[in-house]
Design goal:
Elements: E1 3-6, H1 14-19, H2 38-55, E2 60-64, H3 66-80, E3 89-93, H4 101-105, H5 114-117, E4 125-128
Parallel strand pairs: 1-2, 2-3, 3-4
């Protein structure tokens, strides 16, 4: 199986250098888009779509934090356009919330909300976060929160 993997906000190669001693180190960090600029995110989504068209198909996606919110926005955008899901499954680690694609087209970065926007991702997904992650309290199954109901499956280690 082929998986597309996306990193989090501000990632660089220091992590890799800790694992592989001869890996070159840089202090430059990488982001997919400017988190305060809707046009930047729209451009990044176009670039992502081009990359997937050229390098895919991918069976699934594994993404962390900023990358998870970004790819979730891409998946939601495809769903809103009634396009075929771009992957068979998605695994999100400590995901940032996706941005509403319609608001992006209007120049606004509005994070999606399960109660307002409903379920938009219908492919199998796994949402993994830590028990102490306050950002995702609404997602916890015992709290019956709907703040993360953008995917088809949510849970933590206690649900298995």
């Amino acid at each position: 199986m082929r998986f597309l993997c996306l990193h989090g906000l501000g990632t660089n190669n220091i992590l890799h250098a800790n694992c592989i001693p001869q890996y070159p180190i840089t202090t430059k960090t990488y982001n997919y888009f400017d988190v305060n600029d809707a046009r930047s995110m729209l451009q990044a989504l176009v670039q992502l779509d081009t990359f997937i068209s050229l390098e895919g198909p991918f069976d699934g996606v594994i993404a962390y934090s900023h990358g998870a919110g970004f790819i979730a926005t891409y998946i939601v955008e495809k769903a809103v356009l009634n396009a075929q899901p771009p992957f068979k499954c998605a695994i999100f680690f400590s995901a940032a919330r996706p941005v509403n694609p319609e608001s992006l087209r209007n120049g606004e970065l509005r994070f999606m909300d399960g109660e307002t926007d409903g379920v938009k991702i219908t492919m199998p997904t796994a949402h993994i976060w830590g028990d102490n992650d306050d950002t995702h309290r609404a997602c916890h199954p015992r709290r019956k929160g709907k703040g993360c109901s953008l995917g088809s499956w949510e849970g933590n280690k206690e649900d298995t």
